[in-house]
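Chain A, query sequence.
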Amino acid sequence: MHGAFWRNLTRDQFVAKKVQGLDLLVVGNGAGSNLIKALKGEAPFGDDLAMPPPGAKFDRMPSGLDPVADKDIAFIAKWIDDGCPASDTVAAVAPVLQWQPTKAPVASSRTDDIWFTDPKTGWAVNSNGQIVKTTDGFKTYVEQLHDAEVYFRCIGFASPSIGWAGTLSPPKVLFHTENGGETWSQVLNLPPNALTAVCGMSVVNAKTVYMSGTNFPNRPPRMMKTTDGGATWTAWDMRRWASILIDTHFIDERRGWVVGGKTDEPTPTRKNVKAVVLHTEDGGQTWVNRAADLEATLPKGEWGWKIQFLNDNIGFVSLENFTAGAILKSTDGGMSWHRIDITDPQKNANLEGVGFVNENHGWVGGWGDVGFQRLSTSETLDGGKTWRDANEIGKALN
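Chain A, predicted structure.
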């Protein structure tokens, strides 16, 4: 009836194909795609069956031949659900990952950060003022500190023994351990211009640690570092380069990035900033906005939240935007970036968390909408070209 319409088509041509005037696919929705309905004989297909479904107008596909096996239809449906990755096999791009909740304590707001020194041993911090440690991947945990006066925001370790934890709660903005968290002590030797909230932390080694903040537009954007393991600290103002700052990532004692937003208006707000990805080669004395080439096209009301580098070349930045979803991606070691829209069916927005296991396979998530209520997660298998709803792995990701 329609010929072998699939032959000699590229992946993108196939995804956009219409047959008999009907869209062949709905990317991310196998069950709702006409291809799957045609293979199953679901309306508007199945007119040739002994008991046609109501509304059937077309034959089941393949017309006049034996039906396609259920397992093969399921394989195709999963390929569509996964965003129609352009790979030789779905399995090559999308290894089956089984997600399950851990036994970590549930926080009143969020568990905002984790740090693992090996696949089983790690720490988590949360809004309830808890630092908890596990040695079995959070099948069990031990509460190491519980300070109800603080909101723990980030944590990082230089070794299984030496670590720091940052908060949003001045004056208790920083805690330190030298024995794997058996004891934590408040850091009291911070300079007068220290961060009022530690939003981002990058532990380079036992001597060098960088911290950044804050996401509050009415507080000064600053950075802070130690190069002697915390014996002394220096802090500096970042208003020349940013209006708000969140996450930071350093690859050695002098080279690193910090992400956030900037506006030239006299009163910074989250509605008037644009994303910046700031890069330093001299330990934070000077900075270059590596996203400057995008500034004309970047929307106001959007700023960098989290930064992740997979390797020396590939990096990602999640963009928080109350009404849209997008990330930045770099393929040249953070020297330049391009913006990728999150195009899942649920229209995920207000993102914070980002994590990729390879260049193609990753997740984004956060609050989901402007009301901070939907708590949506999205997955890509093709480097961000297409996305699917992935709320089953967890929500409100940071």
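DSSP finds four helices and 26 strands in the chain. The CA atoms of residues 273 and 341 lie 18 Å apart.
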